[in-house]
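A favour between colleagues. Tell me how you read the following sequence-structure pair.

===
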Amino acid sequence: MLEQQRENGNATIYQYQLIRKFHVPQLLLLIYLLVPIPVLLVGTFLFSWHALFYMPAAFLIVLWIHFVVSHSVLLIRGPMYRKKWRLRFSGIWFGFLPDQHMGYSVLQQVLLQNLWIGFVFIGVLVAWLPLPFTLALLFWHFWFMAPRISILLSMRGQSKDVMIKLNPQDVSYYVQ
């Protein structure tokens, strides 16, 4: 019966087959969440107490950049994609990310646009911002993008019709 539904094109997300599930080890999650603390301490020690202001401000600015870029790409792709995304703060997933299953091609486009436009935006601002603030922006951009880029790297060689689900403790890949 499942094969008939697949052939007729009536398959839903519940009829997708799990290809692979990548679990995020607790140690890796803990390290990922604790990395900003030593970075803040090093920034305070090397530059000044201003790092205590720059780090939270840079966090919010990078979060905003990623939201605007993702939202813009999804608006271009169509309104149905935008409804599946929301701000998430669970596990290693921070920022504007899919809340449901999402096609690999859409996710790839949004993540790559975030990566390059974030770098360009920070590069444009570097002329007017103090060095510690620029470094804080770069740190948060890398910090937000690290789990996302790991998804893209782990998907090399897979077919492009894969659906991805980002769970707090794992990433699941499904195929129809």
The chain has a mean pLDDT of 84. The helical segments are 2-8, 26-34, 36-46, 51-77, 79-82, 104-125, 131-154.
